[in-house]
Predict the structure.
Amino acid sequence: MSSKESGLVPPKNQSKSQRTTRGRPNIEMQDGSSGAGGYSSQLVTESIGKLLEEKLAKFANTLQAMTTRVEGNSERLDEAEGRVSTLEDMLATTENKLREVEKKLQTLTEKADDLENRTRRDNLRVVGLKEEADCFL
């Protein structure tokens, strides 16, 4: 069924005063305004205005809630960045101290090896000498 057959499109041979708006005839109001189905343009405008105000109020509330959440997340992010910065500074300090301790450990290990080698320097090993009671006295 086409739109002309269903009555959605008015015939072309009708004048504007004979055409209908969504099945409602054009009506002249007593105040001089015309409306479809008895609605004045002022009522329609007021209804649209109220709907817009309601939708805008909901939108404003949603926007405010989102703004609050973004501000909260921003504060949390700033706090996390501060913590990360502090930890990075502590890490740099700790790494420097670790390098110093490793150098000291290397130096002390070398000194201990050197001292051990020096104490063995004067020790003699006698191979093939029988151990008997000393008769030198």
